[in-house]
Amino acid sequence: MQARWIQHSLAKQLAKPFVHIVFGARQTGKTTLLTGLLPKPALHYNLADPEERTRHLANPGLFRQECEALPDSDRAHVVFIDEAQAVPAIFDAVQVLYDHDKVRWRFVLCGSSARKLRKAGANLLPGRCMLHRLFPLILAERPAPSGHSAASLPALIDLPSIASQHALFPPADIEERLAFGELPGITLLNDEDRTLLNDEDRSMVLKSFVAVHLEEEIRREALVKDWGAFVNFLRLAAHESGQITNFSAIARETGVSLPTVKSHYQLLEDMFIGFSVPAYARSPRKNLLSTPRFYFFDLGIRHAAAGLLPDRNVVRTDPGRFFEQWVGIEIWKRLQYRNEGRLHHFRTKDGAEVDFIVELGECVIPIEVKWTDRPCVQDATHLVAFLRDHPRAKHGYVICRCPRPLKLTETITALPWRQL
């Protein structure tokens, strides 16, 4: 099994006497990771299987009866429920069983959507559970081809390294990452299945992911009333990924109401398909834009959802735009794993803009992203202004394609993307 950054800490957490819930989008590797960490569960339910799902929907008490039938033991019986959101009543059954006996069972539930749980008022086991998240690959899991270590911004967005005994995912250059994204299964196609040896195959798998995922998770659960309007919304939202979200314009183009558009964006967040980056508000400037930016969680999925065939030619049409998105997604994933810090964007009404602002405690880090291998002081113009206006920000960074770090000014450093 390839190394996942979270696996060591997750293994330690799973040993604790709580209910464990692991959330993440489809194909981020939840089942593979948990199967490796829980090799012999006493019970394993895959609720993505229609037959298994129907059994429990038809008989809500079945899950509890099967758990209670397990014999008494000195060790907790591990019960692993995959795609648990498909049968929300299972959360109530888990609560009853856990409250009755906190050591007899160790429940591990994973899911790819919180929407149905929230809509159905499902019990997310407050005070009883530990919540974990899994994301597409980060640099620490999939290194750059040169073999350089994937250090984060120096000592600021760092993550502990992965134990050396675990195999990393195949290296990839930046263009490959921008074209096909960072989903574990996509990165391994050329390694594990020698019949899939070209970029076209990976493109088709990504297109199929979008179609099948939407079919299974949205249409089946009747999460939207007008399927055609939602498909149009999804295409527009993907095209606008990384831009300041214009809810009104998308509502006009799709012919649906503004509240519906906002609900659709919330649906994508509930399904872990995207996330919002709010505007930076702690600024002395008064003419700031306050609208958030919305990002798809993976660039390969973004391209497919936009109706494009993911490949390198898509990237070459506007590499700077996609490079900026990749950097933002990478930083966001690391902050989520750290369970601390906030990511913002900064833009004024007169056009001054900094791509990303990271807040870590009292530390504020402004970041510009440039598709260049020869960064210069002119690339950091807005960083200079931001640092001047915001005393809490001591140092800024330009993330680019330079081969080695460069000191542009006393307070601004250019970093290669591989050392992000």
How would you summarize this macromolecular structure in one to three sentences?
The protein is an alpha/beta fold. 39% of the residues lie in helices and 17% in strands.
The topology string of helices and strands comes to: HEHEHHEHEHEHHHHHHEEHHHEEEHEEE
Largest sheet: 6 strands, mixed
Straight-line distance between termini: 25 Å
Spatial strand sequence of the major β-sheet = 8-9-10-11-13-12
- Structural class designation: alpha/beta
Number of strands: 13
What is the radius of gyration computed over CA atoms, rounded to a whole number of angstroms?
Answer: 22 Å
What does the overall shape look like?
Answer: globular
The structural domain count equals: 2
- Parts with pLDDT < 50 across at least 5 consecutive residues: 149-155
Mean pLDDT comes to 87
Q: Report helical residue fraction.
A: 25-40%
Q: Count of helical segments?
A: 16
Percentage of residues in DSSP E strands: 15-25%
List its salient traits:
about 425 residues, alpha/beta, Rossmann fold, 2 domains, five-stranded parallel β-sheet, 16 helices, globular
Task: Write the SSE topology.
Layout: H1 7-14, E1 19-23, H2 30-37, E2 43-46, H3 50-58, H4 62-68, E3 77-82, H5 89-100, E4 105-111, H6 115-119, E5 129-133, H7 174-180, H8 184-192, H9 199-219, H10 227-239, H11 247-254, H12 258-270, E6 274-277, E7 293-296, H13 299-305, H14 312-317, H15 319-338, E8 342-347, E9 353-360, E10 363-369, H16 381-389, E11 396-400, E12 406-409, E13 412-416
Parallel strand pairs: 1-4, 1-5, 2-3, 3-4, 10-11, 11-13
Antiparallel strand pairs: 6-7, 8-9, 9-10, 12-13
